[in-house]
């Protein structure tokens, strides 16, 4: 009987793909680590304990068949591993790169609980699908028989693209409308190349385009067409815009030049990576080169900003966060990467004001301490007046999260129901809004969340849209 290749977590240590030296990776926007060599991927996959209750899958929003494709990888059956991972995810190599595995699958790995360090699930996932692309195993989308119905999708981010793919497989005509000049949403313009190289995103989009999905770039609903116009044009409409409005910070001096929202800053940097002409970058407004940079926030977007500033040649980069390291929302791996690259974290601190002559020159900082737990159970930060201080800053980047734009006004659809937070109100059993045939998913329903949840929502809503379109076609047939 062949020896079982699994359960090697005692004899084989956890090993992530080797990262480039910090001083080298800070010179470019390439990903900081290469993928595994085949032997290393098989070795790390073999550490899986094949536990009876796979908590890694339970805590993955997509419920990926993780232990199964780890076993296939360990056995050298890589094409089967790819096909299995592709069953539940439209973008496995993207999730392998940008999911916070330390909070999801790997953070809930059974052998992690036993003290043997988690299986490196994300790195193996990335390896599997990158290899599949290289080997030609990623086949064109197989389009189903034409149904004579069309769906308009507003938003070309991960949720909208996922639904577009599944609906195309089902035989529907699909049109995707996006305000940017390239599809991909935050995958394209919000996440830096050192976490997600852009050719990885573009090849996914090309595969969708090759299937006959029609992309309408530089298209703003409300400017180029109203929501009602799209409803008249298509049999169903999906809103998957995400949330892009920067959360306000009410602090004296906030209007000074040199204080910029995180997404503006990251978009300019990513556009430069594509070779675009970006006037705000060339003028220095959205360029950290030679500057003392202060980033305010502790989430993954803040981590993207501090690490981008390092690569742009900032003189210094500080990150102010009002809680301590243990209570920050961003990935601890990203914090470690940033520290290696030269970012200084100033924990338990928040801005109390900005000043400068013609533009921002200083940030006045309140020292914080952790008080009683807030409604979420985390200890709420409160001012510690004895510890206030000032730091120099030529560029301040605010990364305090995102809120929903006023879509009823923006889309010319005053009858579209929203919650008190501005997110779209839906029937959660069908993901349909109060408007007949108009569905909504992702951050515009959930609030700011993870890419993997947008993919999950895009997968789930496909069945609801299909059911509704089938009922509509049946009713039209009966009426005729």
TrEMBL record:
Keywords for this protein: 4Fe-4S, Iron, Iron-sulfur, Metal-binding, Oxidoreductase
Ranges for domain FAD/NAD(P)-binding: 151-458
Q: Does the keyword Iron apply?
A: yes
Matching Gene3D superfamilies, A to Z? Answer: Alpha-helical ferredoxin, FAD/NAD(P)-binding domain, NAD(P)-binding Rossmann-like Domain
| Any one Gene Ontology molecular-function term assigned to this protein's record | metal ion binding
Q: Which residues form the Dihydroprymidine dehydrogenase domain?
A: 25-136
Which range is the signal sequence, renumbered to this chain? none
UniProt xrefs under PANTHER family: GLUTAMATE SYNTHASE [NADPH] SMALL CHAIN, GLUTAMATE SYNTHASE [NADPH] SMALL CHAIN-RELATED
Annotated protein name in UniProt? NAD(P)-dependent oxidoreductase
Look up and give the organism this protein is from.
Sphingorhabdus lacus
